[in-house]
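Hey,

Quick one before I head out. I ran the complex with flavin mononucleotide overnight. Inputs first:
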Amino acid sequence: MKPGEIRALVRMRGFDADHDRRVVARSHSIGDLRREARRRLPQPVFGYADGGADEELTMRANRAALRRWLFRPWVLRDVSEPDLQVPVLGSGLAAPLGLAPTGFTRVFHPDGELAVARAAASRGLPYGLSTCGTHTIEELAGTGHPGLWFQLYVLRDRKLSDALVDRAAAAGYGVLEVTVDTPAGGRRTRDLRTGFTAPPMLTPRALLDIAVRPGYWTSMLRAPALRYASLAAPGLHTIADITAMFDPSLSWDDIEVLRARWPGKLLLKGPLGPADAVRAVSAGVDGIHLSNHGGRQLDRCVAAVDMVRPVREAIGEQAAIILDSGIRHGADVAVAIARGADMCMVGRGYLYGLAAAGQLGVEHAIDLLTGELRRTMQLLGVTTVAELRKHGDELVVPAAPGASREP
Ligand SMILES: Cc1cc2nc3c(=O)[nH]c(=O)nc-3n(C[C@H](O)[C@H](O)[C@H](O)COP(=O)(O)O)c2cc1C
């Protein structure tokens, strides 16, 4: 090559002093964000996000089930302008995606739920604040996100539980989702092994960890003390302590009472079978949030995506279907839509982004997922989410029996 040609190939990228921007620039998938989160977080904190119940069979089954579906694309359709927008529960979303409620979010990053809500708002997507959140209902509403959801664990202390519902309504939350798959806490073996507590304790091991992960510990120790902002639960907690506050006697009658109390849209989060979905619809819910809690509750549970079609066939178009559990790629969202879901939610996927790079990391996680969905739709030959849903059986087919697509 001539010197001029060599010179034309030289690219010297300047060093970006901003940590979060550097992390985002080198993360090209949710898997990359997960690796960054693992590097930044103390092991027990990473395990709290990353782990599942017991042998983590459900957690792995969710991923494997999503990957069993194969694409059979159309060609020669004008896909220059794919449109990801969808109406769900009366709101127009920029894409069929939302950010699922996750408890104790500030343990991953000092900005916690505020960063997640701001990221979701900037991308036109809904976000659900958990009952176990580390910011209050009102603080989150203060971000100005116009489409917040509130996730309710019905508490043994029904006065406190009802007060949360009323506060969410008063603060303008449009959707209440009642989680119904936690009559007992899942056995999170990783948390038991690592001794994860909320907040994390400054044990000798944690003190050693400060030397290894000064970034995490400095930001945490500078921030206000971590607490469950909505639960009257001061002190130190294991996950088991917190789940013991949830009411295991919850029944269908309670759902009808909540339906009467809550003025907005109502979802149940956690039913999986068609019979429960039909019952939920007759109790007046607006949508089924099909979920096995990302494999954090009942191990050996059916994969959530496998229940989309049976539930859709059972309830028809009477209620929305929102799928979570295992979504790590835009192609997963395409599969869920093709099977009959209206939208997907993602839990760990955005938490990895939050832990790795705060609000910028959550925005990046969203952009990765929506970018992947857009490209998948283009390569499939569809231009709208409605088209993908309508022709799902033609475009998305099961892998041949026995074909292995392990995660
Ligand atoms: C760290 C963490 C905390 C969670 N906390 C809650 C919670 O407080 N309430 C709830 O209904 N679901 C909670 N979930 C479950 C999520 O809402 C969602 O169902 C699950 O993460 C989806 O699976 P995925 O992580 O594979 O996307 C939590 C999940 C994680 C990873």
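The two ends are 44 Å apart (CA to CA).

Talk tomorrow,
K.
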